[in-house]
## 1
Amino acid sequence: MASEASGPDFSALQRETLAVRAAVARSQYGENSEALFLTSGYVQPSAAAAAARFAGDEDGFTYGRYGNPTVASFEQRLAALEGAPACISTASGMSAILMMCLGLLKAGDHVLCSRSMFGSTIKLIGSDLAKFGVESSFVSQTDVGEWKAAIRPNTKLLFAETPTNPLTEVCDIRALADLAHNAGALLAVDNCFATPALQRPMEHGADIVMHSGTKYLDGQGRVMAGALCASEALVEKTFLPVLKSGGMTLAPFNAWVVLKGLETLDLRLRAQSAQALALAQWLEAHPAVARVFYPGLPSHPQHELALAQQGGLGGAVLSFEVKAADADQARTRAFQVLDALQLLSLSTNLGDTKTLCAHPASTSHGRLTEAQRQAAGVSQGLIRVAVGLEHLNDIQADLDRGLSSL
Ligand SMILES: Cc1ncc(COP(=O)(O)O)c(C=O)c1O
């Protein structure tokens, strides 16, 4: 494979350019679009070269579980967009979190997380890792004092998601990075909602950026993918060995889809954020709506921080609560709004060009206990909308069908 031997100085290029030009590794055919290498194994030039490659003494692909040229292109391009030295990809966002925890933590270590994180993240860290002796605590997303008070001598990792799913709470990445580093720990940030189009956590001091590529990196709801961006040392020495033995490898086809998805990430996030802001403003004025959660609204508690951290944009996801007298009525009413949809998709995914609506309390956060759900602020009347690219009037009309019937 030939690479960009006499190409431009990539370190001098803008992010929009890197999204379409970084990590193009052309084969001898000179294809313009990135090639998809579907192979599980590689023919080695000699037994000695194979030995050197397996030992890590020589560059070269060895086996599909360990690496693939298309997968490597995706990793390099995502690293370029995040401003990260390196990146390693996985089969899904959750397997990226699993790889991070298996690589960094051992029995007796402590991990400190926001209690508003994605439901499966809370389950994985709070329950599954506990079986192997990893301690965890969950604190307020926004109160840095609570994070500080919860740090223990054995705290190895702070992990936050910003904005959070589904309440779009924003944490101060720089403050948490300082806290982690003063305690000799690392800070990891789930950048799934904002993506590098809006927010690059390493610029604010984070050590690891985690992605569910299933969301905006793909952007059209086609494949599952995940990734960790970090230093070369963390990627090569801490995460790659877990990938090699754990096998949570990203499939080449999926890598190719997300690689191409990155090319339109910036445009999509800007357009979808503009739509989300307009929809949030409309919902805030709707008589059937009790509250709207969207970082782009001045009513959002971390509005200023969000705009400063996210390039002035609120992102493409918002949530709102329907007005109701109690939790039972709230759930019935939320279901009524969702069941009245004719155009928008009732789907728990997010990050699609199609607008997706979901009831987090019974789906993405359905595996949590009632106490965990309440701590995460996920009420029965809450509806999450991942705003797509349909015309705003059509999105509003579809939501209004149910809302105006309440
Ligand atoms: C914020 C966040 N992090 C992680 C994940 C997990 O990603 P995946 O579904 O690709 O495993 C999700 C999935 O919805 C998510 O919303």
Note: The chain has a mean pLDDT of 95.
## 2
Amino acid sequence: MIGERANNICPTCGGRLEFGLANIPFVFDDTVIVVKNVPAEICGDCHEPFVVGSVTDQVMSLLNQLRMLQSEVSVVTYSEPEVV
Ligand SMILES: [Zn+2]
């Protein structure tokens, strides 16, 4: 799930969020994209990853690029945006 979270508390179950790397599947009508090693706040109870801040923008940009490939399933490893 992508969204804002408050005070390191999981909005889904109220558990504690801790920083880590997550493999997150994104399901669209025409494709499934798995982004690996995404820096995220991960709930210790329900294991839901929450992507925040600039990571959200980078993940969205990766998803947009991959959807243009029109592959049914894509797996990509998260990488930081290149600083020009
Ligand atoms: Zn939770």
Note: Helices lie at 54-67.
